[in-house]
Design goal:
Layout (H helix, E strand, L loop, with lengths): L1 E3 L10 E3 L2 H30 L2 H22 L3 H5 L2 E5 L7 H7 L1 H18 L10 H8 L2 H23 L6 H6 L1 E5 L6
Antiparallel strand pairs: 1-2, 3-4
Length: 188
């Protein structure tokens, strides 16, 4: 538990920041919620249905889940379960702009991933695919490598910021001037 006796403002109450472990736990819970959609896409839509509409629906859900829930509810389902809340530098509900900046490392890879998938769906060889493994082989092109490299680099950099910041802020939190705080047990 990382707390700040001075808080963000000297006259504010004690603040408990969301630690790396809590945030990782929230991410794990959120991943479990999204996983059925991704599995459906990878194990059923790609090899059998080959529906660009379903591909789009899964990507839109993945794209909007985090920004939408953080803006409207102050947290994703995983954060809610672990009593974490996204706040801005004044400890208020973040604006849409702050939420979008905060989620830039979430939104960008999904858009790139959708683009790679859409390009792969449009290749003539795609109609012959009967498994996700075959799809993965077809998808292996330069853009996908660049996408994976950039995503990995961003995740590592973001995590290093989170692990070394006194207030447990990741790089995306600093960009958006947001914080993850832990709500007291009896608060709503």
């Amino acid at each position: 538990m990382k707390t700040d006796t001075n808080s963000l403002h000297s006259n504010e109450p004690l603040i408990e920041y969301g630690t790396f472990g809590l945030r990782l736990g929230a991410l794990f819970i959120d991943s479990l919620l999204i996983l059925p959609f991704i599995l459906f896409e990878n194990l059923y839509n790609i090899p059998y249905l080959k529906s660009e509409l379903l591909l789009s629906v899964v990507f839109i859900f993945a794209l909007l889940y985090k920004p939408f829930t953080e803006y409207y509810f102050g947290a994703t389902v995983g954060k809610m379960i672990l009593r974490l809340k996204v706040v801005n530098s004044q400890l208020n509900k973040p604006t849409w702009k702050e939420i979008l900046f905060r989620n830039i490392f979430h939104i960008t890879p999904i858009i790139i991933g959708f683009s790679v998938a859409f390009i792969t769906f449009s290749q003539p060889e795609f109609s012959n695919i009967t498994s996700f493994r075959e799809y993965s082989i077809l998808e292996k092109h330069y853009l996908n490598f660049v996408y994976q490299f950039i995503s990995f680099t961003v995740i590592i950099t973001d995590s290093l910021f989170l692990l070394t910041d006194r207030k447990c802020r990741a790089l995306h939190d600093r960009i958006a001037s947001t914080y993850i705080i832990r709500k007291p047990k009896n608060s709503k």
